[in-house]
Amino acid sequence: MGAGEEGAGDLKVYYAGLSAGLAPTVDLLDADRRVIRSGQLRLVDLSAGTHIALVPYSAAPTPYRFVRLRGGLLASFGVDAFEAVSVISQESDLRSARRP
After folding, report:
1. How far apart are CA 97 and CA 58, in angstroms?
2. For a surface tag, which of 41, 48, 53, 68 has the fewest beta carbons within 10 Å of its beta carbon?
3. Is residue 74 classed as helix, strand or coil in its secondary structure?
4. pTM: predicted TM-score of the whole model, two decimal places
């Protein structure tokens, strides 16, 4: 995620490539790079193009800042992007705190 923006909901992983039978581990880490939650990424779509896999996040209200993939054969598919379904933004929190 970005500085000042941390994930607070499920994680979408956009990927492409061969993925039959792969289930890499996804670690969601806090700002200090400590693992908050780990889960399996199920890559099931074998067709051409970019696909989306969802990693459920159940450690709310603790936000995550970093994402790490682990597992064998990671080179057989490509990750295009990560997207948190919901984000906590420190900037919006600061604006809210300033309002009377």
Report:
1. 27
2. 48
3. helix
4. 0.76
46-90 per-position pLDDT tens digit: 677 788 888 889 877 889 999 998 876 655 677 788 889 888 887
- Those residues with Cβ within 8 angstroms of residue 7's Cβ, 6 or more apart along the chain or in another chain: 1, 28, 57, 63, 64, 65, 84, 85, 86, 87, 88
Structure tokens at 36: 């908050």
27 vs 4, higher pLDDT? 27
- Two structure tokens written together for 48: 């051409």
CA distances from 11 to 63, 94, 95, 96, 99 (A): 11, 24, 26, 25, 31
Domain borders along the chain are 5-88
In DSSP terms, 55 is beta-bridged to 11
